[in-house]
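In this supplementary section we document a worked example of the pipeline. Step one takes a protein sequence of length 184 as its only input; no multiple sequence alignment statistics are reported here. Step two produces a three-dimensional model, which step three serialises into structure tokens for compact storage. The input and output of this example are shown verbatim.
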Amino acid sequence: MSDLLVEKTDIDGLYVLSPKVYGDNRGWFTETYSKRKLQEEGLAADFVQDNHSFSAQKGTLRGLHFQINPMSQIKLIRCSRGAVRDIVVDLRKNSPTYKKWFSIELTAENQKQLWIPKGFAHGFLALQENCEIQYKVDAYYSPEHDRSVRYDDPEIGIDWEVAEPILSKKDLDAPLLSESDANF
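The serialised model returned by step three reads:
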């Protein structure tokens, strides 16, 4: 049995990864990243940067964020503390799932990860106090390519299941998708 379960979603290129966890009376061990194992599954990326995000308050919503071409990013996301509702939106205009969104609960306990291909907006909602997510990207952060789309854009129609999320000014001021220069 492989120590990495890779599950396709109904959106092309988007995968849920479940690494095997080895536990005993002392605790547990898991391999959170193996380039070789991912390549064996057909998932290849040359990750160049690791990011770590902390949300102190339950109800904190971050997103929907992405970088436009030529600095678009593949992301490998995991929650290392607490629980988040992770959401991605397909912004690839020629995709049959254009504007479709996918949601998954990532927790420190379930240790699931999300492989997000280029051309997607990403966001998450903290479901508990003191949540941390960590993610790898295959392109460096580029302020001039950094973009956002409104979390509550009616054209996308995400049900975040929260009435009044805690948002940054950047996320409050994000444009609608119809006003975005997303170039995927």
